[in-house]
Amino acid sequence: xxxxxxxxxxxxxxxxxxxxxxxxxxxxxxxxxxxxxxxxxxxxxxxxxxxxxxxxxxxxxxxxxxxxxxxxxxxxxxxxxxxxxxxxxxxxxxxxxxxxxxxxxxxxxxxxxxxxxxxxxxxxxxxxxxxxxxxxxxxxxxxxxxxxxxxxxxxxxxxxxxxxxxxxxxxxxxxxxxxxxxxxxxxxxxxxxxxxxxxxxxxxxxxxxxxxxxxxxxxxxxxxxxxxxxxxxxxxxxxxxxxxxxxxxxxxxxxxxx
Amino acid sequence: xxxxxxxxxxxxxxxxxxxxxxxxxxxxxxxxxxxxxxxxxxxxxxxxxxxxxxxxxxxxxxxxxxxxxxxxxxxxxxxx
Lengths: 258, 80
Prior knowledge:
The complex is a heterodimer of chains A (258) and B (80). By secondary structure, chain A is an alpha/beta fold. Helices cover 42% and strands 16% of the residues of chain A. Chain A has a single domain, classed as Alpha/Beta hydrolase fold, catalytic domain (Rossmann fold, 3-Layer(aba) Sandwich). Chain A has helices spanning 32-35, 61-75, 87-98, 123-132, 137-143, 145-148, 151-156, 158-169, 175-187, 215-223, 239-242, 246-257, and strands spanning 6-9, 13-18, 39-44, 80-85, 103-109, 201-206, 227-232. Chain A has a seven-stranded mixed beta sheet, sandwiched between helices. Chain A is globular and about 40 Å long. Chain B is mainly α and 80 residues long.
């Protein structure tokens, strides 16, 4: 049986947060305090990650979107804002397409639409992510730094990176779940259907993102009818560590989207 | 020269129509799969026996995921 762990923080209009590859809902620790000042923030662990369990270790972003809707059902929430990061952003696209009536607005962070038109990362990045499943959690977290963070953050904010790693290691994930999520990301393909998304959308992306190149954000913003694009000049993939002020802009967007 | 341009335009129009038709067919298949999954889940909820319930909801999940892989692949081909 699939069991999903979820929790809420704050009060106000609900916003459902969907985390990326291998990370638990706890990885939103920088963003939750900012958004929960004016919103009811719902975080959860994707299937197979953190305190959630999966019936099978074979995932699709469609299945993960249905999981996210189960969390809304369980929380008694009819419609919510949805904020997805990286793989979570792919799940958010599926959620907006499969369950449009449940979505008020969407924030797509550091993600892509999938399909053959998605802009792939460099060969070194792909090789790292394949290797990562065989590394110890600590080695993987340290080896991922050049891929996850932009040059400025690595130069000036080593303390923030160390704190991210410390928190990530507190919630290790299973190798099987990691591989299953990789397969879900590889199969993801919403490109043709993005024009059907009617919810107001904010696309956020770091200019130095090596994991999901920034050209993908331009594709998303171009294809989704009511999308606006925010590119962060000094950030890589994990932009909320690198430019934490963006969380305030996201909170403002969600409040204004109503 | 003019003839060439016309041919190219006609080629594009035909390809757009084929594309539209293919997308409509995929959309219809997607709707059918969704209805089938919803039906299986509704049946699962109505059944009084636990093993049968689990079996039906598992079949619904598998139907959804297999169709998701097929649709992703088909759209991949259309976009290539």
